[in-house]
Write the structure tokens for this entry.
Amino acid sequence: MEQFVYHNLFETKGIEYLITIVFFALLVPFWLTLNKKSITKEQAEKASGTITADILRVPQGLFYCPNHMWLYLEKSGLAKTGIDDFLQHAVGEFRVTHLADKNSRIKKGEPLFEIWQDGKSMTLTAPVTGTITGINTGPDKNRQQLNSDPYETGWIYEIKPENWKAETASCYLAEEALNWMQTEVTGLENFINDSASKHMQGTDKSVYMDNAGVIDNVLSGMTFKVWNDFEKEFLNFT
């Protein structure tokens, strides 16, 4: 039988192993905490996002009106209309209140519908003169259609235009539409800075702006006075 030999841990390399184990036992939770915070921040930045011309959907073949309505003339001679992606990103999720009835005649520039969010509203006017032949009630039941698919299932009215060529002369098409959207994004940044500074004094600027630009859905956090300013500057086109 071999004789038992006692070894003092502190007199051997065992103490080095113990220190190493303790070091990693403390390091791993610390690393996981840092990594968790980093992921959370990245997810938050991705969720918020900023409004840039690159992220805006601008399908070709559509007429883009200066009041951020779009028009598409079908083979039947009827024109569908709705809200463009710039306005979707600026406002966020909203509901629609229809102001014009089917089979009624409306003139260009007359109130067509309202968008509502948390008691705040804006009025969108008719982009062309004509008879209303259809109203899309789908978005009334599913508001996300207006944001996720504004140019297809998210259309709002169908109109039989009376003076299409003359009344769409001020609209933007193709490459011109893309350039206009870029101009509107820059204009939005200037507008938010001015209007928020005037009506939301004391509010941290990071709430509506970061280094990359205006925060996505920026108007959802703004007061009704900012909404009124936005309506006058971006939507009141006749």
User: Anything to note?
Assistant: Residues 28-47 have pLDDT under 50 and may be disordered. Helices lie at 14-48, 85-91, 138-141, 144-148, 164-167, 174-199, 224-235. The first helix runs from residue 14 to 48.
